[in-house]
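Note to self: keep these together.
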Amino acid sequence: MTTFLQSLNRNAERWLLLVFYVMLVGTMFIEVIRREVFSYSSIWGEEIVRYSFIYLAWIGAASAVKERGHIRIDVIMNYVPHTLKTLLYILGDIVMFVVACVALYWSWEAVHVSWTFGSVTHGLRISQVFFLFAVPFGFALVILRLVQSFLRDLSDLRNGRPVYEGDKLFD
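Structure:
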């Protein structure tokens, strides 16, 4: 069971991103063929693409937190000692954690209101809760990854290891 959980921890965002990306590209491909070849398009295809993209964005944000891949200006990080660098990363994680908690609360409120009033999508005619849930789901993943990052940074600080800075996109 622990092997499964470790694999899930390593690859959860990757698999979710793959599913939503394939859904987005596949639906978009089908809709383009339908529109260009058959001169017919559907409203549900547009909705599937739109909501898949929203899920992609929020799951991608959690993946970026996990890999420390968010855009940041880190020139000063090259000139500070390892301990201060670790403390700055921890401070950044704490600030992002507070923002994510506030955003999770308010995004969950929108899901609750949609659930209460039974709002449905225009094309698919299914509950809008499934699609509004993308935002609190994404922020919950971000919070989980921030807690993991915080614990990893504390361990690095205690053991005198250099802080994890993520993989470099460009050198």
